[in-house]
Design a protein that fits this description.
Layout: E1 5-14, H1 19-29, E2 33-42, E3 45-54, H2 56-73
Antiparallel strand pairs: 1-3, 2-3
Helix pairs in contact: 1-2
Length: 75
């Protein structure tokens, strides 16, 4: 079995419909899982912190490709 590593993803920005779906799809597309997360909306601003698990190489790809989700969501 492959080693499981972890990465913390944080994001803050304007709240809008579909943000959680886009973030989840981005993580799944990279072959990783959300182990735990906390999300909140404050005065129209969305905040998320997520603990992501996966193989080391997949997590490196998430760290490398984060601008993709940044552009898609505005976070």
């Amino acid at each position: 079995m492959a080693d499981t590593n972890h990465l913390i993803l944080t994001a803050v920005g304007p709240d809008r419909v579909g943000l959680v779906k886009k973030i989840s799809e981005f993580i799944a597309r990279h072959g990783c899982n959300i182990e735990d997360s906390k999300m909140a909306v404050f005065c129209g601003e969305f905040a998320v912190i997520a603990l992501i698990s996966g193989e080391g190489g997949s997590l490196v790809k998430i760290a490398r490709d984060y601008r993709e989700i940044e552009i898609q969501t505005g976070l």
